[in-house]
Structure prediction request, 883 residues.
Amino acid sequence: MSDPVKTDQPEVTTETVEVAPGEVVAQRSVDVRMSTARRVGIGVAIVLIGLVTVLGLGLSAGSGSTSFDLNAGDVGIQLPKVNVPGTVTVIVLGILIVLVGVWQLVRGLQGAALRWAGIAVALLFIIAFLTWAGSAGKQSVQIASLLQQTLLLATPLILGAMAGVMCEKTGVINVAIEGQMLFGAFAGALFGTIAGTWVGLVAAAVIGGVMGALLAVFSIRFLVNQVILGVVLNAFAIGLTGYLYGAVMAKDPTGTNTPATFSPIKIPVLGDIPVIGPLLFDQNIMVYLMYLIVAVIDIMLIRSRWGLRTRAVGEHPKAADTVGINVLRLRYQNVIIGGCIAGIAGAALTIGSVGQFNKGITSGQGFIALAALIFGRWTPRGALGAALFFGFATALQTALSLFQSLPVRIDSDLLAMLPYLATLFAVAGLVGRVRAPAADGEPYVKG
Amino acid sequence: MTPDLGKPDKDRPDLVKADKDRPDADTAQPMAPANQTLDQAADRPGIGTMLRSDHPFVVTVLAVISAMIVGAILIIASDGPTRQAIGYFFQAPLDTFNAAGWAVRDAYVALFEGSIYNPGGGQALAPLSETLVYATPLILAGLSVTLAFRAGLFNIGAQGQILMSAALAGYIGFAWHLPWAVHIIVAILGGVIGGAIWAAIAGALKARTGAHEVITTIMLNYIAVNFVNYLLGVTWFQAPPYNQAVSRTVEGNARFWPLFGADLRVNFSFILAIAATAFVWWLLKYGTFGFRVRAVGANQNASRTAGISVSSTYIWVMVLVGALSGLAGVAQILGSANNYQVTASVDAGVGFTAITVALLGRGTAWGTFWAGLLFGALTAGSGQLQVATTTPPDLVQVLQALVVLFIAAPGLIRLIFRLRRSDSSGSAVLAKGWNG
Prediction:
């Protein structure tokens, strides 16, 4: 089963597929040649997406030309609207997708090249879809506001995914991101109301850290199965925040649940750049904090002593221990910091956004952050990209439901499925055999 | 903070060695008596020995007690009269204890009255009936999660499976017009198939591409929620006059019969839950397929070497898992739980609670059954809690999570109650990490 030669024999196609999950275990670090079935499967899927674009979108597109609006508002330097002919653009983009699919069928891309091909297909399809949506020619497609919404919606997801990176790189599975975010959101709203927004932010981080400590103690000290523990902690968080909401906030909403929110701060020079300025540098403090956290984790993980040690502990704790790294202390530390980040992610939902806390306000975003983490292959950059994708899909759904003149009406509930369907395809096709840090989820017992 | 565990005393090689053999050894208990207990238990297992060891039953009872103690602290902390009494604690300390005592007593009495027996209520059996109504889907979905656990799979997707099942069973229930008995059987089958297909997608993805089932089942949950939302907006599904997000009503022929008269809501679906429990118990104990499931769950590579097809086991176990969740969906839609109508919340959060039920049941069929009954009773009690006291009903969710947290960490319970370690404390629940 773990014999790599077998996977290349065409006559045992079914058996090749059969052994697929086994490869994950047996050949974690060996890069095997892609099986024929997988290569053809992915290739056919991409070609189909291309054909859907050409035939489905291209032929049903309106006769008008699509105009893209890149300006976020009426202030600052205004760029002219970009106008493209609807039908022709969609068909050209669709043909490009088909070409990528054919290339995959012939050459059998794998690894990084396949991921880039996947990203290219996704981008081409999105542009084609937006062109199609605006091709009736009545409304221009508001690219700038779409991207702005994307960033706002993605911020909690990105922070949540970073919490996951902190924990899982060091070898502790964190399924409890949802619960940590929920506590952060609650503490942010409560202390934000009582003592001011900044105190709320700190309280959110502290409470998230306490939840992280709970995860750490139970998984490291009491060796509880970490996946199970995460689910239980989520249930605990949902129950306790719900209880406290009923016992505290519902009785005195104005005194406990009306925090001020962070308002956008424009960064002097950078904020004046057309398009990217208002998008990236005229946001509230949560977004800047998110930039900072992503950058710090991304750099530190690769370039610092802490990062090297963290990765060593996550991959091979015994070896790390042998060279004198305190495995358990590093795990405690990283899991608690991860909890703090998840708490901040939760605060982004209350004091960073709408202000008020509601029961179950996270509504599964912690799980989406977890999916983004896996989707992004446990790297800060990958998780960032995946979280932005989720944010974009949600923003797109909202934008389209407001869009009056689609060539063909699409039900908003069906549109809402889009990000999840896309993840399902992507997880199955592109990153099916993900490789988590080798010791992820395995408690370390010295001896 | 840093545990003593992993820092064995270097001067005592016997301890170093012992720690190796006992991966989750806690330091509260010296080695010698624990070994002694083990030997004694093998010779003559007495009830007294059992009560002082970490036997599953003992741990469960202690976990429930611990959860109720933490719950009591929460009740006291949020109780208005108690907080007032604390204001003058040093003048009259007894007042504080009095108020706190009453708050805790009221809350737990309300839980009891809502779930087991209410002397002040009209129908004496109504609380028990409610308990069974809430327990039925929890047992069925709990069995689904349990079965998946035994194969080493983590089914977070019971919610989606229940929704798809309820949508399909509900559709058959209101749109098809079939004779008595036939209609309900067809509707049940429809629901079971709906749930089975939805879970099989995750199983097939796992088997064919290695996509982790935690991610795929979560995604399938969201897709199912949005799909049901979509259905609740189309004319052939939504109830006229099309202004509310509810489906048409299931016909009488496709409804479960009440077990004890029309006054009590408990219905035939509870019998289905008992039958399903017996089936899962039989499957895991005697069934060939059950053996395959347990083998794959215990060790994938060994199973493969022994000639078991791991991927087909994954797919078929997920079909069964989905069928069980499907039965939970059927119980929700064809029983009285949701007014015989499909809504976006027809799953009533059962999918997630089922995970905790399965954990409490320690991966066994009958354990899941009793855990489902306990959680059903708590859920039924939360209604009375809301009616009779000012304590928020969410308390019940906290209690449920705490019970499972204490169960999941037997080391913690051992530490708190100074229990001896026995060899019967294990749980059959298996959930693999991302690389599994």
